[in-house]
Every structure is written in C-alpha cells, then in structure tokens.
Amino acid sequence: MELSLDLLGNAVVSGLLLGGFYAAVTIGVTISFGMLDIVNIAHPAFIILGSYIAYIANTQLGMDPILAAVIALPAFCLLGAAVYQVYYLAFERRGEEALRGLAFFFGLLFITEVALVLVFGVDYRLVEAVYIGPSLHLGGLDLPLRLLVPCLVALLMVGGLQLFLSRSFLGRAILAVAQDQLALRLMAANPIRIKRIAFALSIGTASLAGAVLIVIQPVEPSVGRDYIGRVFAICVLGGMGSFAGTLVAAMALGIVENLTATFYGPSWAPAVAFGFLLVTLAVRPAGIFGR
Description:
Strands 1-2 form a two-stranded antiparallel ribbon. A hairpin with a 2-residue loop joins strand 1 and strand 2. The relative contact order is 0.20. 73% of the residues lie in helices and 3% in strands. It is mostly helical. It starts with a helix and ends in an 8-residue tail after the last helix. It has a single domain, classed as ABC transporter involved in vitamin B12 uptake, BtuC (Orthogonal Bundle), CATH 1.10.3470. Helix 1 packs antiparallel against helix 10 (243-264) and helix 6 packs across helix 8.
C-alpha cells in the first residue's frame, strides 16, 4: 500500500479527536474506579441515558444536545448521589462491595437498558445540530466538526475537573479520600459524604458524555456495552485516578484505532487497540501516569 501523507495526517488527527471522545466517556470511571475503588460497570448505561436526554431535548424542544446535557448535569449528579447512598447502605458499609456491589451495578446496567428499550424501542436515534456534517479544512487536513466539538467539550470537562480537584477544598478532600480515609477523618471530614459527592460528579460527567456520543453516532439502548471494556482499559492504562493519564491514554488509543482502521480495515481496529493496551501495561503495569 502506497503511503499518502495526507491520508496519514488525517488518520492521526481523526484519532486525536476520537481520543477526546474516549476521554469524555472514561473520565467518570476514572473518578469512581480510579479514585473510589467502585467498579461502576453501569457507567456506560448512564452515558446512554444522557444520550436519550439530549435526544428528547433536541427533537422535542429544538435544543442543542450539548446545551441540553449541561442543563441536565445537576439532575445526573443527584442521581449519582442517590445511587451511591444505596450502594453504601446495602454493600459498602457491610464490607460486601467486592462481588455483591459488582452485581448491583450489573443490575443497574440491565435495568437501565431494558427501561430505555421499553420507552424508545431498539431503533437508532440521532440528533441534529449545525456542527454535525460540516468540516474544517486546513491544508490537506479535514477536521469534522462532529468530532472536533465533542473533543473540545471533553478537554473542557477534563480541565475543569482537574482545576476543581487541585484548587478547591472539596476537590482536595476527594483526592484525600482516595488515598487515606482515616487521615481524612482526623481532619474532621466525613469520608462517606466526600465519596458521595465524588460519585455524583462521576455520574454527572455521563450527561455530557452521552450528548457527545449521540453527536458522533446514532444510539440505541445497548450501544453502551461496546464501551464497557474500553473505558476501564483506558482508566487503567492512564494510571488509576489520573485525569492527565486518562486523556493521554484515550488519545493514544484513538490514534491506534484510527490508523489501524484506515490502513488495515475497521475489523482489525479493536484487536490492535487492545493489543497495544496489553503491551503498554506489560511494560508499565501502573499505567502511563501511575505511581
């Protein structure tokens, strides 16, 4: 195959934009799994729920899907706080969060999926926006706005969360509860309250992730299953609890997937991408930014 520099450049740029989307869908797992040790296997289901909220607002109210996600974000945070409270009372407080807690989130995954099927059916749904379709052309590079806008949203979300964690008292408390809950108690802070807020933030990110997902592709209730393995792999590859690591790992995975799909066919992309993840973790088990 003759290598075209324009084709290679476009494949890399599209991979970076795709990686931004992967960062958006993974950042919530970085909080819940990477920081709180909560294996929220249902996170992709909440993302699909966010997609359908954006779909309803777009089709019924004519609202931009990403704006709809921003408006819905507080409701998703409240939902996350409620889910954590049930999880804590039923499992974590009793020390049964390992296996039974995982079953709880599997149950949430399937209940959410079935509920969406009953309400919306199994047909694919899509949204309309001015940035779905057009592309920016920079020399020989094409930047599809349907990928560029979600990537920018992901970067803003990751940057905002990083600033919140590093600059605010509550953010530092979340970082502390991820490291030493006993020390946090000695500082007169309630680790359960802090974990509830952190988990609420992780579910809140699903609102925006769902909106960018339906901007990129049509969705149906079971689409979230395609991302379960990918989001946890990116979280581990980036380094547990590292936002910068999540972003770098997501971009790397996006580039590898897109290059493989461009030059060898899309059927090879998942296998090569996960092979890349395994090799990277074999060389650096703690992840790219892991300690």
